[in-house]
Amino acid sequence: MKLFKKIFEFKKIAFGADLLRFSVVRKVLYTFLHHKKESDFVNDRRKSKRYDIMLKLNYSYPETRYTGESFTKNISENGLRFPVNLRIAKGALMDIKIEDPNSGKYLSLRGKVRWLEEFSGEDDSGAVRYETGINLLKKRLF
Known about the structure:
seven-stranded antiparallel sheet, globular
């Protein structure tokens, strides 16, 4: 979350609060995240570096018309990791909309489920939740 706040503080200084658009967010993310030290990255053996950033997103699973809302746990150039409430088959396609917190506009993406992991919720309800890894199709996040 600290990284996320730094990015948007940088944007306000560099571009002015009224001029913020999601394309600017993408450019700032790209510039800022590509100048970090190797020791600051989450991943080790993957193709793309992972960044711990929390972004609000809406997702839908067209096969069942299920929709949900979540926050990313981490992002990479070609993928996302976030919790979901529904067991989704590996290889399934999902539609994802990531919200720009400053303007409320959305970046629409499509991705394929690469993995799904079950875990228990943090509350006392005992509700089963899942965490999924999505590989983005055709578009890069930044």
